[in-house]
């Protein structure tokens, strides 16, 4: 027999737990049929900015707005979980609702403090195991070293967040609640010494969610508390360089060799679409003759996706290959282009932009977008551009597509000639 039950949610400020800076944590009290339990929302605010009647932060600013959004989201999630539990159980208790909200089974009892955590089920330990396996795959060439660096970077950021938020060195899987993703995202975008962009921060949360999923597979936790965090969206559109900007960089007279070499490497990327890692590793073996005419192509498996990139060698690229074929670095290391380390390359690109009067931050990703833009607006099909860029999915290539106004104008002129007479009258249907 099902019982009609009423859920009451009360937000309050726990002033007794105020920190040294005067900020107090926000709690939410769950009450069902006279029974109650409290949940910390993981947010702190100074009592002067807390509206006791409206139960929200009344100060202006981005942080206040985000806290209010999280308060509303927590209330919505609890209401949703309550209805789901009512469909499964005759009676729902506040403890059951709290458990589900925190990502653990409804009927699971709270662990006593005397229980010691099981070894090897902490978040950073899972990171270390994953990275150790990834290192072995990198050594065998199954995974790229660039992706390995990203995993190590994510692990370091999670470690910093745990220290900042929990004042701990590590965190047990069972202690990760559904607020972890939001708080980690806030830490990355607001509280770090060098805040990340929204898109980059979401990617870090996405990778961390993949590690937490290991806890689910090992049955350490029942569900992934980070699953509800939306990691998609927020990708800032990269505006490729205009052709006159590319030409200005290409034609610029440079007296310093290191800057000239970086310029040539950047131009090489703009007309091949190769990422830094792939351009760095290009050798004479990657030049392949294709077809009966023996057309010269650059063919290489992309390090990031392991998808084969194949790009016909344009005259400007052949010119650069010929220019550096007797360069000491290229001869010793069997390379097509002399390329600095990734750090130095990006530093010198900033210097190059200033010298050439380009008011953009030059980087390898911008070069790939510029290549895609040149190809797509020169009539090369999207599928072909995707193959040249080494993309697994055509949807990835679509993010590079930016149609220029002159191309729209040309296509519309064709439409006009088909549909309308020279006087502007709609043609009769044949």
TrEMBL record:
SUPFAM superfamilies: DNA breaking-rejoining enzymes
Domain Tyr recombinase: 236-413
Highest rank taxon of the organism: Bacteria
Keyword Transferase attributed: no
Pfam families: Arm-DNA-bind_5, Phage_int_SAM_5, Phage_integrase
Alphabetically ordered keywords of this record: DNA recombination, DNA-binding
Molecular functions (GO terms): DNA binding
GO biological-process terms attached to the record: DNA integration; DNA recombination
UniProt family annotation: Belongs to the 'phage' integrase family.
Name of the protein: Site-specific recombinase XerD
């Amino acid at each position: 027999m099902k019982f009609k039950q009423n859920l009451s949610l009360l937000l309050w400020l726990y002033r007794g737990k105020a920190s040294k800076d005067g900020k107090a944590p926000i709690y939410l009290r769950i009450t069902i049929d006279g029974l109650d339990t409290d949940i910390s929302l993981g947010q702190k605010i100074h009592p002067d900015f807390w509206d006791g009647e409206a139960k929200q932060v009344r100060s202006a600013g981005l942080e206040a707005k985000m806290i209010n959004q999280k308060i509303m989201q927590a209330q919505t999630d609890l209401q949703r979980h309550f209805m789901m539990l009512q469909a499964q159980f005759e009676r729902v208790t506040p403890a059951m609702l709290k458990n589900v909200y925190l990502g653990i089974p409804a009927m699971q009892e709270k662990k006593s403090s005397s229980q010691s955590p099981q070894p090897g089920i902490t978040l950073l330990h899972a990171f270390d195991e994953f990275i150790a396996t990834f290192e072995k795959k990198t050594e065998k060439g199954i995974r790229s070293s660039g992706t390995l660096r990203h995993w190590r970077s994510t692990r370091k950021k999670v470690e910093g967040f745990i220290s900042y938020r929990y004042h701990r060195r590590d965190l047990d899987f069972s202690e990760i609640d559904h607020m972890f993703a939001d708080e980690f995202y806030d830490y990355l975008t607001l509280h770090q010494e060098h805040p990340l962009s929204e898109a980059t921060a979401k990617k870090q949360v996405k990778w961390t969610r993949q590690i937490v999923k290991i806890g689910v597979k090992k049955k350490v936790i029942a569900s992934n508390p980070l699953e509800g965090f939306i990691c998609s969206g927020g990708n800032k559109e990269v505006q490729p360089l205009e052709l006159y900007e590319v030409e200005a960089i290409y034609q610029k007279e440079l007296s310093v060799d290191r800057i000239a070499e970086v310029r040539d490497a950047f131009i090489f990327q703009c007309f091949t679409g190769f990422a830094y890692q792939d351009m760095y590793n290009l050798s004479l073996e990657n030049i392949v003759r294709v077809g009966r005419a023996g057309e010269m192509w650059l063919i290489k498996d992309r390090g990031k996706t392991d998808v084969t990139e194949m790009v016909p060698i344009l005259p400007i690229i052949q010119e650069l290959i010929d220019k550096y074929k007797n360069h000491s670095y290229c001869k010793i290391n069997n390379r097509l282009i002399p390329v600095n380390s990734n750090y130095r390359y990006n530093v010198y690109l900033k210097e190059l932009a200033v010298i050439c009067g380009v008011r953009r931050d030059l980087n390898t990703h911008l070069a790939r977008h510029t290549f895609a833009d040149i190809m797509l607006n020169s009539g090369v099909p999207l599928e072909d551009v995707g193959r040249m860029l080494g993309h697994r999915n055509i949807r990835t290539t679509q993010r590079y597509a930016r149609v220029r106004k002159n191309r729209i104008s040309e296509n519309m002129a064709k439409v006009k000639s088909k549909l309308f007479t020279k006087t502007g009258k709609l043609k009769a249907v044949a």
